[in-house]
Write a structure and sequence with these properties.
This protein is about 35% helix and about 20% strand. By secondary structure, the protein is of the alpha/beta class.
Length: about 450
C-alpha cells in the first residue's frame, strides 16, 4: 500500500480545525450563508466531528474539523485524524487551527489513519487525503508511516500466510529495498551453528525454524535489533485454551516492529551500522515437541529448565541475544510480544520497556511524547533474580507464583547479553484492540517511533 501526501494543488479543500471554544468565533467571521449553515448543522467542534461547507452552487468549498477541548485532546492523540471518516472523499489542506508544534503529529496521524489491510479484500478508494502542511518534514513522516504500514501488514497477515518462511521473505524484500545483506540459518543447521533453543522451540512445526540475520551500513556506531518472530504460538504441549490462541498470529509482533524500525533507519540514511536478528519459529505440537521439565542448553551455555512450553519467546530470543552480544555492539534492543503481565500492568496502549541506563530512559521518554508513541519504563529489579533460578538448572523459563511476570521475563533475557552491554527490552502488545484515531483495529507498531527519534542521542549520531 503506497503511502503519500496529496499533491499540493488548487483542488485541495481548505480544512479549518476548530476547538470547542472557537466555532462561534470562526462562524461569526463568515458570510451569513456559512454562519447559518454552521449553526443549523449543530457543529460544536468535538473531536471526531466534521462539517462540509458548501459554496453558492452547493459544491463543498471548505471543511471544518473538531479539535475538541484541550482536556479531551490530552486523553488521546491524532485528533484531526479522528474526523477522517466524517469527511467527504477528496484532498484537504490544513488552513488553520493546528499549532505549529502539532502539525507533524497530526499529519502523521492522517497518514496512519489512511491504512487498511487489503490482502484479502478490495482496497478502499475513497479515503480523504491530506496535503503536507508547510514547514513539516514530509519525507520523514512518509517514512514513519511506511514503517508502520509494513509492521501492520506483517502482523495482520494470518499465520497460514505468515510463517517463518514468509517472514524471511519479508525480511529479504526489505533488505533488497535498502541494499542490506541477509543470511538465514534454517532447520537442523541451527543445531550445527549452535542455536539450540531456537531449534528446540521450532522443531515440532512442519515449517522449519530459522534465524534471520540482516546487516546494513558501514560506518558509525553499531545497533542490533532483536525481534521475537513466533509466527504462531499454540503454547506447545502446555496448550493454550482457544480464547488465548485466537490472536497468536500477532506473536511475531516483535519481529514486525524491528523490521519497521529498520525501515525507518535505512530509509532515513542514519549513519550507523545496523543488524537485525529475528528468530522465526512456530510453537507447535507434535511427537518431537520440547516438553515441560526438559532442560535446554543455550548458545551461551546457560541451562534452562522448561516449566511451561508456552514461555517460548524468551527461549528463542536468548540465543539471538547471545549472538548479538558476541559482536559487542554499542546498543542492543529486543522487542517482543512477551508477557500477559505487561498488559495487565500498563494495558494495550503503552509499550513498557526496561533499561538500566537512566540517561537513555530520559531521552526515550522525551521522544515518546514528541512522536505520539507512548512508552513506560519498568525496572530490571535485581531483587527478583532469584525467582528465575530454579536450582536444578541455571534458569527457569516460567517461574511459579505469578508475580512480576514482565520483570522476571526481562531479567531472564538480560542474562544472555554481556554485563557491559547497553541493553533495552520492549515488551509490546503489537495490537490495537479497537479502532482509534490514526490506529485502526489490528496490528500495531509500538515504541519503534520513539526509539527511532531517540537514536541520535542514544548513539551520539
Amino acid at each position: 500500500m503506497k503511502v503519500a501526501f496529496a499533491p499540493d494543488n488548487a483542488a485541495a479543500l481548505p480544512l479549518h480545525v476548530l476547538d470547542a471554544d472557537e466555532v462561534a468565533l470562526w462562524a461569526g467571521q463568515q458570510s451569513d450563508q456559512v454562519r447559518t449553515w454552521v449553526k443549523a448543522s449543530g457543529f460544536k467542534g468535538a473531536i471526531g466531528s466534521a462539517l462540509m461547507i458548501p459554496g453558492p452552487d452547493g459544491k463543498p468549498v471548505a471543511a471544518l474539523v473538531g479539535y475538541g477541548a484541550e482536556a479531551k485532546r490530552k486523553r488521546g492523540r491524532f485528533a484531526v485524524a479522528a474526523a477522517m471518516t466524517a469527511l467527504a472523499p477528496g484532498a484537504y489542506r490544513i488552513e488553520s487551527g493546528v499549532p505549529d508544534e502539532k502539525l507533524e503529529e497530526e499529519a502523521l496521524g492522517w497518514l496512519l489513519g489512511s491504512y487498511s489491510f487489503n490482502r484479502y479484500r478490495e482496497a478502499k478508494s475513497d479515503v480523504p487525503t491530506l496535503v503536507a502542511p508547510k514547514g513539516i518534514d514530509a519525507a520523514r513522516i512518509v517514512i514513519l508511516a511506511e514503517a508502520e504500514f509494513l509492521t501492520r501488514d506483517l502482523i495482520n497477515t494470518p499465520s497460514s500466510d505468515m510463517g517463518p518462511e514468509e517472514l524471511e521473505a519479508a525480511a529479504r524484500a526489505l533488505a533488497e529495498q535498502h541494499e542490506a545483506t541477509i543470511t538465514v540459518t534454517t532447520g537442523d543447521a541451527l543445531v550445527a551453528e549452535n542455536f539450540p533453543m531456537i531449534h528446540a522451540v521450532g522443531r515440532a512445526a512442519d515449517r522449519a525454524p530459522r534465524l534471520i540475520d540482516m546487516s546494513w551500513g558501514s560506518v558509525g556506531p553499531r545497533l542490533t535489533l532483536v525481534g521475537k518472530g513466533v509466527c504462531f504460538d499454540t503454547g506447545g504441549l502446555n496448550l493454550k485454551p482457544g480464547a488465548s490462541m485466537g490472536l497468536m498470529k500477532k506473536d511475531m509482533g516483535g519481529a514486525a516492529n524491528v523490521l519497521g524500525l529498520a525501515h525507518m533507519i535505512m530509509a532515513s540514511g542514519l549513519q550507523l551500522r545496523l543488524r537485525v536478528l529475528v528468530p522465526a519459529v512456530e510453537n507447535s505440537v507434535s511427537g518431537n515437541s520440547f516438553r515441560p521439565q526438559d532442560i535446554l542448553t543455550s548458545r551461551k551455555g546457560l541451562t534452562v529448565e522448561i516449566n511451561n512450553t508456552d514461555a517460548e519467546g524468551r527461549l528463542v530470543l536468548a540465543d539471538a541475544l547471545t549472538l548479538a552480544s558476541e559482536a559487542e555492539p554499542n546498543l542492543i534492543v529486543s522487542m517482543a510480544t512477551l508477557t500477559g503481565a505487561a498488559r495487565v500492568a500498563v494495558g494495550p496502549d503503552l509499550a513498557p520497556y526496561f533499561t538500566d541506563d537512566d540517561v537513555a530512559a530520559t531521552s526515550l521518554d522525551l521522544s515518546a511524547r514528541r512522536m505520539a508513541d507512548p512508552v513506560w519504563r519498568l525496572p530490571f529489579h535485581d531483587a527478583y533474580e532469584e525467582i528465575i533460578e530454579p536450582g536444578i538448572a541455571d534458569l527457569d523459563n516460567a517461574p511459579k507464583g505469578g508475580f512480576a511476570g514482565a520483570i522476571t521475563a526481562a531479567l531472564f533475557l538480560r542474562r544472555f547479553v554481556g554485563e557491559e552491554d547497553r541493553y533495552m527490552h520492549f515488551d509490546i502488545y503489537g495490537w490495537q484492540p479497537s479502532a482509534a484515531p490514526g490506529r485502526p483495529k489490528g496490528g500495531a507498531l509500538q515504541g519503534a517511533r520513539a526509539l527511532f527519534d531517540a537514536l541520535p542521542t542514544l548513539l551520539d549520531l
